[in-house]
Amino acid sequence: MTEADSGTRFLDRLSVLVVEDEAIISFLIEDMLTELGASDVRHAGTLAAAMAQIDARPPDIAVLDVNLGGERVYPVAERLAAAGIRFVFTTGYGKSGMDPRWSARTVVQKPFNLETMSAALKNVLDTTA
Question: What distances in angstroms separate CA 76 from CA 65, 71, 79, 91, 113, one per listed residue?
Answer without folding.
Answer: 10, 11, 5, 15, 24
